[in-house]
Design goal:
alpha+beta; Rossmann fold; eight-stranded mixed β-sheet; 14 helices; 40 strands; Pept_S9A_N; Peptidase_S9A
């Protein structure tokens, strides 16, 4: 529990309290396409295949083939940085390329990693595994057992999804023999389900799962956690933790830091509220904080990040602050806290990471990175820890610092990684070290260039939303951009769950959008313009930015995005017929509302793995878990405001809608494919022209499980928008 991303909550008085659903249920509007909710039904999949064929016939021309090939070359490039995680003496990496589309799990030494051609020790070939077992496995990571005697790491629980969805099968893997441990020999092998696994010791796992008849919450996640001993089945394992059915999920995890071993349980009430308990003398002891305070532990320290203003011992600390207290002292009832960060109107805390002895804070100042290093061994007169700014963050870039291995006892415990990226700056990986003399760092790896970055300029602008709020956005365009309203422009956004959209290098965007060129009668040959909007509902300015667009205030996110679109038009960057927008998941809901509420601003819309039917979203896949973000449509008073941003119910006859491409994946078990299906079917039934649909038959919520699928997905979206906005060239 040493690296923590900030997360946020609705106001307590607005939060739907745990308990039975309301007896007075809002009526459901007529839904003529509810039959498409049978995800794997024969008739439904026949409809999907017919739609796929129609869309592929439209899009997969020579231009599409060139775009797809260019994207696949980026994704399969062997010059990409192989990002690594350190465990013991080795550095582990998961790698996909043309020869290994499902990927290789591998490791190397630090000395070898520094070379241009590291000597990789291959542990698991997922392509070979899939071929031998006849299952399209997707690798979702591995959790290591920390050796208790200081020997080499040997055992790991490998997470594999059979279709790219969130449900995983956990299998014990022996790093020495490079094989799975046979269940017949006592090896752990947990059935495919949504859940979480943590090592307690060499013969015991802490498991939260919905497999083997274990109960699920209304959100489809695990409701209980068990202590699974080697040789036991989940069904017979000792239950050690349970939460109410209408809470989101249960999780139990063991912290194996030497000298600070302890076990935590978390009751995730909803996305922004949780209760954390510590196992103490055989019983769970609640850590006494409000449910909307995010907490984490590192060695002797307990960290607090309140999602709302929080009063402790008569002192009020603003939402988005970071505070610390001694863990044992807090449990004993002492309420002395140290203030480590206080937000302001321009600066927010995004995440924090502990090395062994130092704390790294990743901040955003007007959506540009700033990193602070705090030293708890040097408190000032007020008790706050001495801090300095890490000189590693150029303007309009995203730079993240995190520990290499805070549990390392051999000298690397205070080392950190820096991952830096910008829209026109290929990603770099740097390694540094912290100590009494300060910090030093050196570049380790640099990503290759995939387009002519020198020809492009990154600018930050601010649009004014309907209520007067200034909304930042990034614009990436050719240095010779002509402001005559004729530039094909792709506007991207998200605006939910306190997710921040920050600068990031993308060879895909560079090749598939920025470097693409118009042809035809226009006197100017133009490339694409790429724009990222930092709208409310996200986390760019901390909790208040998120809270401002929750539930009944959701319209503010859409007003912000529309304001950015209008600003691009007013500034002469683009025009309605040249402006398109793209978003996925909650971003799909965003652009679905652009389609239905602001059709006059856009020429085309690419809407991916989306929420669209907000009346039934809580009944589909994991939708129930998002009530804290959107509200509960079964409650009549809440449906009244939810219906105002439910695109499926906002479609109207007689409206000139933008060209629309809706895409999803059959195996997406988070949002699910059915909302996308129903939206496309309703629009087509209404006679709305130029509505296209495509559903990948695997790939999960990402829509793709390997580079080939990812290239096809990204090529379809970009090619659709280019055809619609650039006159079909």
């Amino acid at each position: 529990m040493t690296t923590t991303a900030a997360d946020q909550s609705p106001l307590p008085e607005e939060r739907e309290q745990p308990g039975p659903r309301h007896a007075d249920v809002a009526p459901e509007p007529t839904d003529e396409f509810v039959w498409l909710e049978d995800i794997h039904g024969e008739e439904q999949l026949a409809w999907v295949r017919e739609q796929n064929a129609r869309t592929e016939e439209l899009l997969e021309d020579a231009g599409y083939a060139a775009v797809e090939a260019g994207i696949l070359e980026v994704l399969d490039s062997t010059d990409r940085i192989a990002m690594v995680n350190k465990r013991g003496d080795f550095y582990y990496n998961f790698w996909k390329d043309r020869e290994h589309p499902k990927g290789l799990w591998r490791r190397t030494t630090w000395e070898s990693y520094l070379s241009d051609a590291p000597d990789w020790d291959e542990l698991l070939d997922v392509d070979a595994l899939a071929a031998s077992e006849g299952i399209e496995w997707v690798f979702h990571g591995a959790g290591f057992l920390r050796p208790s005697d200081g020997s080499d790491y040997r055992l790991a629980m490998v997470s594999l999804s059979p279709d790219g969805g969130d449900a995983n099968r956990y299998r014990e893997f022996d790093l020495a023999t490079r094989t799975f441990v046979d269940p017949a020999d006592g090896g752990f092998d947990l059935p495919t389900a949504k859940g979480h696994v943590s090592w307690l010791d060499a013969d015991t796992l802490l498991v939260s799962s919905t497999a083997d008849g274990l109960p699920a919450t209304s959100s489809s996640y695990a409701r209980t956690a068990v202590k699974l001993r080697r040789g036991e089945s989940l069904a017979s394992a000792e239950q050690i933790f349970e939460i109410p059915e209408d809470h989101m999920l249960a999780m139990v995890a063991h912290d194996s830091t030497p000298g600070f071993e302890r076990t935590f349980a978390v009751d995730y009430i909803d996305f922004y509220n949780q209760r954390t308990s510590l196992l103490h003398d055989g019983a769970w002891m609640d850590i006494d904080v409000p449910t909307d305070v995010n907490i984490s532990a590192h060695r002797e320290w307990l960290m607090f990040r309140p999602r709302h203003d929080w009063s402790v011992a008569g002192v009020q600390y603003p939402a988005g602050s970071l505070l610390a207290a001694g863990l044992e002292e807090w449990l004993a009832g002492t309420r002395d806290v140290v203030v480590l960060f206080t937000p302001d109107d321009h600066t927010s805390l995004q995440s924090w990471s502990w090395t062994r002895d130092y704390l790294l804070l990743n901040l955003l100042r007007d959506v540009s990175s700033e990193i602070r290093v705090l030293d708890p061994s040097k408190p000032d007169d007020s008790g706050s820890w001495a801090w300095s700014t890490l000189d590693a963050c150029p303007p309009l870039h995203d730079v993240n610092a995190y520990a290499v291995d805070d549990e390392d006892e051999s000298g690397a415990g205070n080392d950190y990684w820096l991952v830096a990226t910008g829209f026109t700056t290929p990603t770099t990986l740097t390694r540094g070290s912290l100590g009494p003399a300060g910090s030093h760092h050196e570049e380790v790896k640099r990503s290759p260039s995939f387009f002519n970055e020198a020809g492009y300029e990154v600018q930050q602008h601010f649009a004014v939303s309907a209520d007067g709020t200034r909304i930042p956005y990034f614009q990436v365009a050719s240095k010779d951009l002509v402001l005559d309203g004729q530039n094909p422009t792709q506007l991207s956004g998200y605006g939910g769950f306190e997710v921040s959209r920050t600068p990031a290098y993308s060879g895909t965007i560079g090749r598939a959008w920025l470097e693409r060129r118009t042809t035809g009668e226009d006197a100017h040959v133009r490339g694409g313009v790429y724009v990222v909007a930092n709208i409310r509902g996200g986390g760019e300015y901390g909790p208040s930015w998120h809270h401002a667009a929750l539930r009944e205030n959701r319209h503010r996110a859409y007003e912000d995005f529309a304001a950015v679109a209008q600003d691009l038009i007013s500034r002469g960057v683009t025009s309605r017929k040249r402006l398109g927008c793209v978003g996925g998941s909650n971003g799909g809901l965003l652009v679905g509302n652009m389609l239905t509420q602001y059709p006059e601003l856009f020429g085309a819309i690419s809407c991916g793995v989306p929420l669209l039917d907000m009346r039934r979203y809580t009944k589909l896949s994991a939708g129930y878990s998002w009530i804290a973000e959107y509200g509960d449509p079964d409650v009549p008073g809440q449906w009244e405001f939810i219906r105002t941003f439910s695109p499926y119910h906002l479609l109207r006859d007689g409206v000139e809608y933008p060209e629309t491409f809706i895409w999803t994946a059959t195996s997406d078990d988070r949002v699910g494919p059915v909302q996308a299906r129903k939206m496309a079917a309703r629009m087509q039934a209404m006679g709305i022209p130029n509505v296209w649909f495509h559903e990948a038959l695997e790939g999960g919520h990402a829509g793709a499980s390997d580079n080939r699928q990812a290239a096809a997905l990204q090529a379809r979206s970009n090619h659709f928008l280019w055809r619609a906005l650039a006159g079909g060239e």
